[in-house]
Amino acid sequence: MKVMAQMAMVMNLDKCIGCHTCSVTCKQAWTNRTGVEYVWFNNVETRPGVGYPRGYEDQEKWGGGWVRTKRGRLKLRSGGRFTKLAHIFSNPRLPEIHDYYEPWTYEYDTLLSAPQGEHTPVARPMSLLTGKAMQIHWSANWDDNLGGSMETMQDDPVLKQMSESVTAELEQAFMFYLPRICEHCLNPSCVASCPSGAMYKRAEDGIVLVDQDQCRGWRMCVSGCPYKKVYFNHKTGKAEKCTMCYPRLEVGLPTVCSETCVGRLRYLGLVLYDADRVLEAASVEDPTELLAAQRSVLLDPHDPEVIAGAEREGIPRDWIDAAQRSPIWSLISTYEVALPLHPEYRTMPMVWYIPPLSPVVDVVTGSGNDGEDARTLFAAIDRLRIPVEYLAGLFTAGETAPVTAVLQRLAAMRAHMRNVNLGTDQDPRIAESVGMTAAQ
Ligand code: SF4
Ligand code: SF4
C-alpha cells in the first residue's frame, strides 16, 4: 500500500440553483484575459443537455479518457502521445470555438449614449473575438429553454389545444444543474497524452497542472481529457486548466468556487488513497464493479494502518488530521451518497456528486402535490421525476442499483430530519436505514 494525499470535492446537486456565481468568480480570478475569453474552468451545465463544449460526452467523437484492451490494460482513447502529432493541425478531435460558444460582450455605449426616445434602447451583443455585432445562436444553458414550455403553452391559444399526451409529457420534463471543474483525476489521461511532459500531477496533493514553460501547444491534452477540461489559450499558444486554486489552498483558503457558492453545495477536502491500486481499479471490466473498485481506492483516514502508511510516505500529521476532519471520505465511503462523474472514462475523477432527489411523478401529475412528503419519496424511489436511469448514465456507467440506493438513503434522511425538526413520531425503519436510532 502506497498512501498518497489528494484534494477532492463533493458537490450536492440538490442544492445547485444554477446561479453561475461560481463560474463568474472563477472567471474573474483565472480567465479574465485575452486568449481565454471562451474558457470557463468552472462551468454549470443544464441536465439533460449537451454540456460544454457541446457533446463532450461523445467519447467516440472526441477521443478522451482510457479504454480497456482485451488483455485488461488501459489504452488512451485519443491514441497516445505521438500517434497523432503528424495530424495536429487537422486533429478532428479538437473542439472548435462553436463547440464551446463565441464569447461576447455588449455595446454598452448604445445604452449610455442613446438619446431619449419612445423605446428603451437595447444593448447589442458584440463578439469578443471579432469586435463585431453578432447574433447569438448558442451559449451555456441554452438547454434551459424547455423550462419555459409550460408557460408558453398556457399563454398561447394554439398551443393550449395541444393534445393531453404532449402536455403530460411536458409536465414530466425535468432539469437540474451540474457544476463542473477539472476532476483532478487519480489516473489523468491529459497527463498521459502530453508529448512535452508539461502536464503533471502534484505529488503532495494530486492537483493536476500545466507547466507553462514546458507546454508546446500540441493540444493532445485537450483531446485526451474526456471531460474536456483543458483549454487552449489562443494568445499564448499554451494549454490552461483549473488549478484548484492552489495558491489559495496553500495559504489555507478554499477554492474561489467553493467560497462563493451560493448554495453552499461544495465540500472541499483532503482524502488519502492507495496509489498502488489506482490502475487496477481503473481497469475493472465489469461495470457493476467499477464504482465499488473506484471507491475502494480511497482509504479510511482513521485506520491505524493507513495513518502509519501516510506517515511512512512523509504526509504531514496536520494533513492526516485534515483528511480525518474532511467530509469527503464520509460522503463517498461511509454514507456512500457521493458518486463519480462517468467512472467509465477510467481516469478516476476526484470531484464526486450527490445526485439530486426529485418528486415522485404520479404525486406531481395526480394531485399537484410537489412530492415533498419524504416518506412518499422513500417508498416510491423508482418513480422519481428525474429517472434513475438518467442519473445512472452520468454517475455509475448505467448501473441503476447504486443510484437507487443513494436516493433512498437521501430520502430516508430527509424523512428522518423532517420528523426530528417537527417533533413528530419517527419511523424506526427509516431511522435505521440511515444508520440512526429513532431517538437521534
Ligand atoms: Fe486531466 Fe482534469 Fe481532464 Fe482529469 S478532468 S483528464 S485531470 S484535465
Ligand atoms: Fe450552483 Fe453554487 Fe455555482 Fe450557484 S454558485 S451555480 S449554487 S455551484
What does this structure look like?
The chain is an alpha+beta fold and 440 residues long. The protein is built from 21 helices and 15 strands. The protein has two domains: 1-101 and 138-354, Alpha-Beta Plaits (2-Layer Sandwich); 357-433, nitrate reductase domain like (nitrate reductase domain fold). Helix content is 35%, strand content 14%. It has a five-stranded mixed β-sheet, with helices on both faces. Strands 2-7 form a two-stranded antiparallel sheet. A two-stranded antiparallel sheet has the order 3-4. A hairpin with a 4-residue loop joins strand 10 and strand 11. Helix 19 crosses helix 20. The protein binds iron/sulfur cluster (2 copies). One iron/sulfur cluster is lined by residues 16-22, 44, 177, 179, 261-263, 265.
Number of helices: 21
Shape: globular
What portion of residues belong to β-strands? Answer: 5-15%
**Small ligands present:** iron/sulfur cluster
Q: Total domains, how many?
A: 2
Structure described in brief:
Its cofactor is [4Fe-4S] cluster; [3Fe-4S] cluster. The protein is an alpha+beta fold and 440 residues long.
